[in-house]
Amino acid sequence: MSPSILVLGAGELGLPILHSLANLSSTIIPPSSRPTLTVLLRPSTINSPSASKALELSSLRTLGITFMAADISASTAAELASHFKSYDTVISCTGFSGGPGTQLKLAQAALEAEVKHYYPWQFGVDYDIIGPDAAGGLFREQCEVRQLLRAQQKTKWTIVSTGMFTSFLFEPFFGVVDATAAERKGKKVIVRALGGWGNRVTVTTPEDIGNIVAALVLGDQKTGVVFTAGDTISYEQLADLVERHVGGEKMVQREVWDLEYLRGELGKDPEDAIKKYRVVFAEGKGVSWSQASAANVQLGIETTDVERFLSSRKDVLGF
Hints:
15 helices; single chain; alpha/beta; 3-stranded mixed beta sheet; 7-stranded parallel beta sheet; globular
């Protein structure tokens, strides 16, 4: 009987993982042994009147991916377990959209269903080092998920620590690279260092994460915490790259948001998640690691560094 894989969600990360699983499976596994691929989606998503969504779902069907309709937010852990129990591997790509408690509920459901291998939504920083109390408990639930998984033996689990999605560096609302002024008025691109210019951050694109996860699921099957690194870069190196892409230092304005300033800003609005993230990255613990020991290097998977990302996505700099 062919193994079965269930992916939860088809968003920014779910889609690349689904495509990578389907493509790698068709390349390395004989047809009779290929795993079945299913994606869990909300009923409203499957029945969406949006033409773009219909095209997206059609592309998944073309790859042989089937759909399961369920609402994670509205379901109990027991109800989710009944959906999961037919699958060997469950990969959570839900993000944080489900609200507090969702990641813990999904982990509990995976364990109750006794799935063979669970990949939780932990595609981010090193929560073990950062801990549950950083930035007002921003990652407490993620730490609780790890504790839950480590306390049992029946279900294998793999946590893929990817660092920040590369594109997040260039989101104006995050504040590291802000090209909105340059885009609107032809002025300088602002590059800000969180904590200091020497602080480093590890980043990976969703497409690269998809390839790495597919290689892990279909081949290597590492367990425990696995690290990926499309790039590990300091804020000073990032500013230098942006300068080269926008025409020199006269086109870039460099600023430092030090830890004291960022903690003060968070104090004014302690429930603001973005301000919490800025504090964590400014503290500089658990947000970067060596590329040499990353899973993508060990698996021989080529990834996109920030230089290549900027070469292909000049729009993030206002061009």
